[in-house]
Amino acid sequence: xxxxxxxxxxxxxxxxxxxxxxxxxxxxxxxxxxxxxxxxxxxxxxxxxxxxxxxxxxxxxxxxxxxxxxxxxxxxxxxxxxxxxxxxxxxxxxxxxxxxxxxxxxxxxxxxxxxxxxxxxxxxxxxxxxxxxxxxxxxxxxxxxxxxxxxxxxxxxxxxxxxxxxxxxxxxxxxxxxxxxxxxxxxxxxxxxxxxxxxxxxxxxxxxxxxxxxxxxxxxxxxxxxxxxxxxxxxxxxxxxxxxxxxxxxxxxxxxxxxxxxxxxxxxxxxxxxxxxxxxxxxxxxxxxxxxxxxxxxxxxxxxxxxxxxxxxxxxxxxxxxxxxxxxxxxxxxxxxxxxxxxxxxxxxxxxxxxxxxxxxxxxxxxxxxxxxxxxxxxxxxxxxxxxxxxxxxxxxxxxxxxxxxxxxxxxxxxxxxxxxxxxxxxxxxxxxxxxxxxxxxxxxxxxxxxxxxxxxxxxxxxxxxxxxxxxxxxxxxxxxxxxxxxxxxxxxxxxxxxxxxxxxxxxxxxxxxxxxxxxxxxxxxxxxxxxxxxxxxxxxxxxxxxxxxxxxxxxxxxxxxxxxxxxxxxxxxxxxxxxxxxxxxxxxxxxxxxxxxxxxxxxxxxxxxxxxxxxxxxxxxxxxxxxxxxxxxxxxxxxxxxxxxxxxxxxxxxxxxxxxxxxxxxxxxxxxxxxxxxxxxxxxxxxxxxxxxxxxxxxxxxxxxxxxxxxxxxxxxxxxxxxxxxxxxxxxxxxxxxxxxxxxxxxxxxxxxxxxxxxxxxxxx
Length: 766
Hints:
Blueprint: H1 31-47, E1 53-54, H2 55-64, E2 85-86, E3 91-93, E4 100-103, E5 110-119, E6 141-143, E7 146-147, E8 154-162, H3 174-183, E9 193-198, H4 202-205, H5 209-218, H6 222-225, H7 234-238, H8 243-262, E10 267-270, E11 273-276, H9 277-285, H10 292-304, E12 320-325, H11 326-331, H12 343-363, E13 368-369, E14 374-380, E15 387-392, H13 409-414, E16 454-458, E17 462-468, H14 471-476, E18 478-480, H15 483-490, E19 496-504, H16 512-515, E20 516-522, E21 529-531, E22 544-550, E23 555-559, E24 562-569, E25 572-576, H17 580-586, E26 591-592, E27 595-596, H18 603-614, E28 616-617, E29 623-626, H19 630-635, H20 641-656, E30 660-667, E31 673-674, E32 682-689, E33 694-695, E34 713-716, E35 719-722, H21 731-744, E36 756-759, E37 762-765
Parallel strand pairs: 2-4, 3-9, 19-23
Antiparallel strand pairs: 1-11, 4-5, 5-8, 6-7, 8-9, 10-11, 12-15, 13-14, 14-15, 16-17, 17-22, 18-21, 19-20, 20-21, 22-23, 24-25, 24-33, 26-27, 28-29, 29-32, 30-31, 30-32, 34-37, 35-36
Helix pairs in contact: 1-8, 2-8, 5-8, 10-12
């Protein structure tokens, strides 16, 4: 193909397609420069058999001068002997998509660009059945809820190399490649490379693709990056050679490249991978394996995996959760094998995921399939081509989260303290003797598991997580950061620097001086922290803090979220989301911003402090303590007779007033207490604390709004409508739907789902 005269950038003939403005990201780049880059990248995708072209691969093309038409990187500025070496089955330092590599063969090496990679977990079966804990598991996971604790974990990964990108001069004859695949010594039978990828940390394995790629460019691919023979040097684009400038410039360039791919009307994106719409359409028209019929079968399979086979007594359906891995599902299709070799495997995986995503967008309510009651969500976008989670009944998981953002529920659910019958906590009972009690035998309910950070969203542009505020944070004016942030920022080579903290507290008390603060980022310890935070006066232990960090930046945005209705716990009015376990622990008597001590507490408050601080916790904040351990827990030594008397009197009063409740457990042969009591073990008395939050409806919350009068004209937003069989939407309706997607921010969902049209916004009378 020739790009001359077509307005398509030609490396080494035209002005560079990457510009200094692009180093600031797509928002700072003029529209005409974005358009020029987009046209070139569309030509690159078309030249590479319609994709998929990853953001990192697209950057390589624009930076190193990929020439469509067969030459590829053949005229590029590379010393190919510096490329990292790969050998099938070997352990190797982890490589990102976009890495330029040399595959050893014992004779003529293969030079390639890694265009796709995925996890290849040994516990995922060939029939796409996935053990729940594998989905979303960290790199060092070795079983349900179990981790190796390795500082440099190893993960089995499949890498898809494109062996054609360096032009005919470095390509081996097809017959020789077939022999390599048949022998499965240098390439596997599908033309892929499976390796044990070694990471320097668990956090490194969790980095976004573009962040990992930037680090790779500045380290293992640095010689090629800084070559003077590239169309335009990163040093020129960044305005200098300082390491931080180079990193920020590369981050901005990758953001611009991804934006150009995602906003192209000729392309569709699955994550970081862009495919030509014509390539997707041709696959759908195919009558054989991996055609439209198979993709419909895939969406049905994902839904039916969790559909109950029968009804229980009284008509109640049983719950079921299933996980479907895309890669194994495709390989199990009859006749699909020859179509899943080389780069075609990556094409098929992306097409299949887009098919399920379109099904979720078009035929579900935020992931919930109304007819079957099954909720379908993406759970892992890396392992075995992507893992989709199906849950029935799905209505009980309506948390408002985006069903197409990987949630990692498979792994997270194995960490839940309510995973076994022993750990199930009944609803709050009316009688004190029947109140919910923590299972003493469950070690997962100790302090090690409370106050943990949870990731909410991980994208190429930002990282969001939530963490409960602990008493120590309030006392010492700091907040710990998540390891993924720390590992990324440590690449800057500094241990401390000033950063900007922006704080939001809707519905709460917030001084102007609290809203924007300059604090210190401290990376000297194992866990990085923000120090010198001025916490607002009404922040309390247990308050949930939602943290947003734009990747690579020096701004941290903290916010809280209001409860729908405030609650009262032990006389404390709480209007924002909180962690009940932390509230029980850190909100015990004797703890405040000024210190944490039992000095000056009367016996009643000493008892409450001991039960809340030493008792085992349930997820909703109940604490349960072995009654025999209470005296030493209160007095820290064997108490005197008068202290025992005062203690028993205080316990009796607290039980009578329902500040505490009594229960019965048992003690095992090892001396450990258990609850519920185990058969054959000696019964023991237990004492518990129940927070019992009392809901306080907001004024007017129980009222009803005014009834709308009939015959009133009202505005109707654009929406999807199912078409009768055999009907198709017009080009105008397709265009209207694309414009609708652009307005609502779903740049990846521009094609109308099969069988639907788009009704544009209009007015209607009731």
